[in-house]
From TrEMBL:
Domain Acetyl-coenzyme A synthetase N-terminal, first and last residues per copy: 21-78
Native source organism of the sequence: Nereida ignava
Protein name according to UniProt: Acetyl-coenzyme A synthetase
Alphabetized UniProt keyword annotations: Acetylation, ATP-binding, Ligase, Magnesium, Metal-binding, Nucleotide-binding
GO molecular function per UniProt: acetate-CoA ligase activity; AMP binding; ATP binding; metal ion binding
Origin organism lineage: Bacteria, Pseudomonadati, Pseudomonadota, Alphaproteobacteria, Rhodobacterales
Enzyme class: ligase
Post-translational modification summary for this protein: Acetylated. Deacetylation by the SIR2-homolog deacetylase activates the enzyme.
Residue numbers binding Mg(2+): 534, 536, 539
Amino acid sequence: MSDLSPSPEFAKNAHIDAEGYAKTYAASIADPAAFWGNEGKRIDWIKPFTEVKDVDYTLGQVKINWYADGTLNVAANCIDRHLATRANQTAIIWEPDSPTDEAKHITYQELHDNTCRMANVLADLGVTKGDRVVLYLPMIPEAAYAMLACARMGAIHSIVFAGFSPDALASRINGCEAKVVITADEAPRGGRNTALKSNTDKALESCDASVKSLVVKRTGGDVAWTDRDVDYNALAAKADTTFAPVEMGAEDPLFILYTSGSTGQPKGVVHTSGGYLVYAAMTHQYTFDYHDGDVYWCTADVGWVTGHSYIVYGPLANGATTVMFEGVPTYPDASRFWQVCEKHSVNQFYTAPTAIRALMGQGNEFVEKCDLSALKVLGTVGEPINPEAWNWYNDVVGKGTCPIVDTWWQTETGGHLMTPMPGATTLKPGSAQQPFFGIEPAVLDATSGEEIHGNDVEGVLVIKDSWPGQMRTVWGDHERFEKTYFSDYKGYYFTGDGCRRDADGDYWITGRVDDVINVSGHRMGTAEVESALVAHAKVAESAVVGYPHDIKGQGIYAYVTLMTGEEPSDALRKELETWVRSEIGPIAKPDLIQWAPGLPKTRSGKIMRRILRKIAEDDFATLGDTSTLADPSVVDDLIENRMNRK
Ligand code: 6R9
């Protein structure tokens, strides 16, 4: 294998080298208050904080506060403080879906003016500090303006990924009681337009009549207009380009982002202002070894946490040039990512393993015909990366000279918790390797909850203590927050992931240990898909599990029991697929549906998912003990008719 230690030239110019990492990490753990007190100064405060950390993980009284007596404005940190030196520097490079349309270079001054316009328009609609605003937008600059406008006026944004259905949108608008939803006429992606406005109209049918819809023009396509619609472009043209940033407490919410859990409906993860921004900015700088003047590109959508922390807040807080891409990796063809890298001389490139696997399958010529000489650092996020994809990324895209940072983190964590650092870490394909500063991971025995010390061990991954970017609560349900993250293993933050710590002490994430599956890097609660399926009139019962999928990482495997008198058919299978798409969105569509006359249940009626997972994996030789099942014979039928045969 090639040498995967940092090259001496890289290490020399990097923010941190191996020795620096070890020293800084040790200091961050030895005295967190001193370490984070110092890091807190990387952003501008209106009233400086005097308290750094006030955290309690005790069940029943969980509280997480960072820099609590400080005040600031997040948008002023991402825009205004750069104006003296960077007014004419590009803040955002917007690359549209179609390569024949023109890219936009938005300077920090323009970002300021457009954000203020958006804030004035929202203020005219009655939005004030603390109000919620839902964003359901394509990847267009207005999405960033809207996020920053909310931050500027103290409103709380909640972004709903444009691939979600009207039902999913409605439940989020209602869940956070939003005053306004910002949408666009249509969202072009991969050459096809999604009808965002008409989806929004459908969603709003089940929302309070007072909710306004602010419509941005993207394609100019024909859309129906209702009484609650407001034309963004008309108002923005007349709006003022100044808006005084509102002074916010460090612990005032910045945004809510709904994410899937192992039970029930998605929960509203709440991130606050001061600590989140410090953490997003710091991790962006170190993980990607970002230097002034670099062009940085994260291919995520702002509908996911990666887009929040690593397209908008982290990079802009650092005065970076950040690329915002509207399209998909394979449109018009499989060289699009690499053409965009060449076109904008991208220095740091951050994407998901699922995209790498899909592109790897298309052949090397799509990469090789592009000039990727500006690339310095490559990143991945969202799911474990298999060594084959890692090696392709390293050899073909990075030409063996760009360190790959495999960043492990979650919506809940606000920023990277484990990642190699370019310039410091000798890389291991497929491993997130080492904790970021201030992060103390621990491996627990799943059953006893005891900490497993030493190396070459495996168990569930928890984090001791807090970090500034941590989520603070579940919107409107602090009890659910405590129960989900702090009740299984007392005194720790429970990640829901399993991991292995190898002989060198490096961490390997082994995947979720709960009923969350990871499809193309998107989190999906199996419970959500099940509840969508059973909402169909012909479905009596359903159980959903993940199974290994070459491109997506995990695919969705649904066992479906029909109502008495209903007959299985290919037409019904199609109908159920369409149904789930419309209930949740295209990403939730089951890949395989197996008709199950019965599901394996314990005598107390609990579905034995372990067995269903094994059958879905086509690994039924080791089903283990099935004698506790109420009716062991259902298993034979399921094996007989399994859908995933190798
Ligand atoms: C940022 C993001 C979080 C879950 C997480 C884990 C998986 C993310 C990973 C990874 C292995 C990595 N995950 N990054 N697994 N290696 N580098 O993805 O947030 O959508 O909340 O998903 O994704 O299972 O628990 P989110």
